Amino acid sequence: MDHIDCNYYEANADTINLGNITSSEKNAKILQQLRDGDDKLDYFNVGVVGRATWNSFIIGEGDDLGWLGYFIGKSEYLQRLNLLYLPDGEEGFDAFAEGIARSQSLRYMFINNLNNDGFTWIMTALGSLSQLEELSIWGDNNVGPDGWNELRTLLESGGCKLKQLCLRGNNYIGNEGLDVLSNGLRGIRSSLTVLHLSDNFIGNEGLLNVVETLQTCTGLETLDLSRNDFSSAAAGLSSLSDWLQNAPMNLKTLGLECCSINDEGLHALAEGAAIHCEELDLDENESITSTGLSYLSNAIRSDSSLVKTLYLQRIPIGDDGMEVLALGLAGNKSVRSLYLGDSVDVSVNSAGWLAFSRAVCNTSSVNSTYLSNHTICGIWDENDEEINLPQDISLYLQLNKEHPHYAARCKILMSHPHLNMTSLHQWGLMFLPLALAWFERAKPCTTLTIFEDDYDPDLSRRILDESDEAFESRELTAMYEFVRGMPMEVMKCLSGLAVAVAYDEKIARIEEENKIALEQRDRKNLELEEEIARLKIENKRLSGIVEVVRKSVSV
Predict the structure, then answer these.
(1) Residue 175 and residue 145 in contact, taking contact as beta carbons nearer than 8 Å
(2) What are the pLDDT digits (tens) for 202-235?
(3) pTM of the model
(4) Does residue 140 register a pLDDT over 80?
(5) Residue 497, phi then psi, degrees to nearest 5
(6) How far apart are CA 314 and CA 312, in angstroms?
(7) CA distance 473 to 475
């Protein structure tokens, strides 16, 4: 069939019988919606029976792909197109791709199960879509080197500034395919925020290539490298760690699920991942042992750690692993959610849970309790449900979650009925007002409640079953023991007060004497001023007499 240009479609678009160019009423209806500018049709699938949903254009005999492409290109409301199937050697396929290239509304494209020719045509068409934000290319695409070269050309051209690029489960990429795509990835630069490269047979060489490529992706927030083989990729993981620590970007999520990472690899990765990522997924890396977890523990213990969500499901943690994790969590102030999965119920026993309990509430001293972890809120399984935990740990985590501002004070009051004030004697009596202020700030702990069942808000209980009188008694006892433990300081304080009173009395006496002296001086000054005024008047009177006598003599 000869190539049909756009002028033909433009001339016949309003009059063409849609039933004559489609294989079903459903397909005709989709074309009708596209032609009429139906704003409700903002996405649909192009697929085949068995690979389609209710809103799918199911390709069959009689469907004209040229017309489908034309109406896609003319739609002002179509934002997402999922290409789940295109037949081999179909007539009008070039016109279909040209129609897509004219779209001004498409922003999201999903591609799956295309052959090399179809993939190449679509990559060429997407080069014209400057508004395209998200491109997802999933497995089952039979794409060869020339197809990946066309994707590289698309990305390298800079014609579309993608925000999200997903290449998932593409068996034909591997290390060599990534080498081909590297220049294209560099072309996206700062616009890219999400990059998925999971399940693409990437190894150490490919990972090194990815890290080098990402140097220009300064806007990247999510990087998913899950389900690749990094069993021998310590060098690549070390390079990834260095990039995380030094690159000017804001990566928040790093996915490394099921990558065969071992202890050596985690050692290479841990520091960079912990201080730069808020979400770190290490699920299903079954070669990691307590040795590898100790490297991760050291990394999250740092004050620089930013990890809020940590995934460690289907890793043989055991008591040893839990103990080293607890050491890191004890000094951590960022991790809020820890995903360990159902397997932890079997592999972690009392010794492991005891170590974790000490991490969230170390009862050995008041100071140790204060320095415990008051941030982590839950341990979850893969279904986002809390796993079965010892009762004390469950209480501490719930307290961290529901009352983070009071967690430390509540744990201190719960764990230390009689506060030992001996360690505070080094501060002297100047600490007494601070201790009183702490009790004042801790008093709300007696009224706080926690929910015993997330699904029933009526099932709640108080954290501290303590009356106001009992709390006041605790406060007075602590203050009494504090003062009683340092009698000499109290006596010194009393002696000092006596000296201060004596000095105050002496100062008051001197001030009174000064006041009397000033009053006497003022009185004398007043008397002098009055005498001067009297003398002036007398001088004036005598001057008048002298003048009268002088005039009489002259006559």
Answers:
(1) no
(2) 899 889 988 988 888 889 999 999 999 999 999 9
(3) 0.80
(4) no
(5) -65, -40
(6) 7
(7) 5
